[in-house]
Amino acid sequence: MTLPLRDIKIADFSWVGAGPRATKDLADLGAEVIKIESRKRLDLGRMSPPFAGGKRDIDASAFFAITNTSKQSVAINLAEPAGVDMAKKLVARADVVVENFSAGFMERIGLSFEELKAIKPDIILISVSVAGRTGPLGKIRGYGNSAAALSGLASMSGWPDRAPHMPPFAYGDVVAPMFATVATLAALEHKRKTGRGQHIDISQVEPLIHTLADSYAAIQKGKPAKQANASSSALLQDVFSCRGKDQYVAVTLSTQQQLLAAADLLDIAQTKDLSPETVRDALSCYCQTADKHAVAKRFKQAGIAAEAVADGRDVYTDEALQHGHYRWINHAKLGLCDMPAPPLRFSVSSDRVTAPPCLGEHLQEVFVSMLGEDPAHISKLVDAGILA
Amino acid sequence: MLSHVKVIDLTSHLGAFSGRMLAELGATVIKAEPESGDPLREDPEAFTAWNHGKRSVVAPPYTSAFSALMAEADIVIRTTGIPHRYLQDLKPDIIDVVISGFMPGSETLSEPVSDFTLMARSGLMTIVGDPDRPPMTLPGEQAYALGAIQAVTGALTALHERALTGKGQLVEVSAFQSAVLANYREPLTWAWTGKTGNRTGNLLIRGKSGVRQVWACNDGFITWALVDNPAMMKSFIRVMGDHAGELAEIRWEDILVADMPQTQLESWESHIAGFFMLHDKATLAAWSAENGLGLSQIDTPDDCLTSSQHAARELWVNIDDVKYPGPLWASSESTTPSARRAPALDEDRLAFLGGRI
């Protein structure tokens, strides 16, 4: 078993979420990802809780860790021309450059696509930004909620009788990097066939719209924008309150057969003109005194899609995730802990999840061993504050 | 980009977005459909949403038509139920991508799932919605979409491996695990702090108090929050002008919003709410862009469908008078899908099977 992307090299200038989540995927699949960081302008992920030991430490954020496994880190001061020169050496040996800086930054430091091409003619540049780099919003700066706001996701979220809802996690930072991973792999395939690199400009807004393609079509045909927990392809779909504080089970009845199976479990199969509403009422009543896991199990055994609504603890301990989703790593600051792996299993290839890097951890390996720089020169750059 | 790649698509609902993405990248994606057609055809808009750019041939597995298609295929995308060995016998270097709710081979694999129940089990629903109401899911079918995107990553990764070694392989994808990865905070927080999250509505909780994230303005809604960013707060107060009231007196460098009592925050927020109600979302968004206020307008679906941004980037394509998202991104290399509509059942029989079957 070998790592499928073992021959791919990535110079990763990206930070926070929208870029690093993509390069984590690629690193876990075997690409060599060198994360180019700044000590002055820290990757904000490094400052995000929770921290191992409970105290803020740029090398001990578990949040940063899950987004940066299997990578190497160097810290370069890109405000200095000598720093940019070192970055260019990493570009020269890379297949792919990834960045999610604000508009114009790469150009200002001399790393525009044209300049990257001059260094490496078939380079693939992947840029991720809030709304893409072209169009009237091509220069806007991103905030946590921008992608949800500008994609319609927030408008379609929440209860129909209330204001739009901002889901409390940066979903634009989840889907856009997945598109960036696909873009990288597709561009590598294109390069293999044509010898040509390219600049791919990924918006955080557009991938969210893509995931809502069928909802957008339905809305144009007059369906309400907010569906809450209902689904137009189900006879009945909702959550039902179960025994205990804030405990629920989620149930989908898609077919008449499932509706009858549910009625049977609820002892209302003999009801005349059985409707989804009758089943809803009986289910609400039944769940009040039942455990969410027990209800889900009983319904699933009857061929009905049902799951307990899980919280963080339920997910962490979920039986279905105990065989390959979490992988053990040993890290200088985090200690022995587990990190999520790609949700993929290959019969020929393998994947890996290795410890995320401490800031600048791979300075010597990258510049001296890999690039063959003179150790004395590297020391001088460190003393001058250009490398760290 | 992928015009040399041929894909056989056996999916109907879960996984349909995978072939759609590959078709958009220029791959030839052939739906090998049963005689009765993909059941999703009963919902024409949903069918078009996930199938535009694909081709169609009636060619269910175990028929000679299917074998003929397979002989030239690089990738198959499907759910469980067909032995990998059968596909491998038809095409030894095939990349066989299987997407299902749970990872094949696990005890949970055979359990019935819907997108909604996968979202429930992923932990995402517990934190979505309002504290005074039950948990809720995200719009659309996000667990299915996330799984489908991961399946494309799996397919293209295996294509890369095949270019290196000549070997095809089986790639299995769990939509459940894909959704769990989207829930990047909750299991992590439990593992490291022993705390579980819950629904906070539109309040962003920082420290002991929460700040509003969604505000009404005079023609809709915007998103903005009081944050510990003194430069941004000063710009904001300047833009508020006379409406700032008591906010004008605050020395933002000397306080931490996260430490303010809830009643104080709500008093400040009432001034801000009044200010937003005087203006429309476009004006507020323009001020934010000029002054770095950290505010975004909340676009309605209609706003998105008519947005000048999306028009400039040619995001929407028109098919039978309905707009669907087309390109996945912008690129310096052009990519053209083979068609800008969903295929009629079996319409590409001649093109792909000729007189052979």
Automatic annotation (TrEMBL), chain A:
InterPro entries: CoA-transferase_III_domain (IPR050483), CoA-Trfase_fam_III (IPR003673), CoA-Trfase_III_dom3_sf (IPR044855), CoA-Trfase_III_dom_1_sf (IPR023606). It holds the Pfam family CoA_transf_3. Keywords: Transferase. The keyword Iron does not apply. One of its GO terms (molecular function) is CoA-transferase activity. This is Acyl-CoA transferase. It comes from Alteromonas confluentis.
Automatic annotation (TrEMBL), chain B:
It comes from the Bacteria. One of its GO terms (molecular function) is catalytic activity. This is Carnitine dehydratase.
